[in-house]
């Protein structure tokens, strides 16, 4: 999976190698401490082209601060984690 741009200020687009994503795939954003701050699963399921955008906001719609965040993907019995860097 590739996030572009990374680092980013406003939003990033994440492209997945499997398009469309397999049924039951999950995508979440966590802070560096591992706390889930946003669930992108609905966006992943709705995007048949294997891309999803993250606008740098948490589940409450608040912009997250500068730092490193973790994109966690669970699909077909595998889990992958990638780093995303937000610059404000």
The SSE order reads EEEEHEEE
Give the low-confidence spans: none
The oligomerization state is: single chain
Number of helices: 1
Radius of gyration: 12 Å
Concise synopsis of the structure shown:
With 88 residues, the protein is mainly beta. It is built from 1 helix and 7 strands; from the N terminus they run E-E-E-E-H-E-E-E.
Describe the protein.
With 88 residues, the protein is mainly beta. Helix content is 7%, strand content 44%. It has one helix and seven strands, in the order E-E-E-E-H-E-E-E. It has one helix at residues 41-46; strands spanning 2-4, 12-15, 26-31, 36-39, 51-54, 67-75, 78-86. The strands form two sheets. Strands 4-3-6-7 form a four-stranded antiparallel beta sheet. A three-stranded antiparallel beta sheet has the order 1-2-5, with no helix packed on it. Strand 3 (26-31) and strand 4 form a beta hairpin. It is globular, with a radius of gyration of 12 Å. It starts with a strand and ends with a strand. The model has no long low-confidence stretch (mean pLDDT 89).
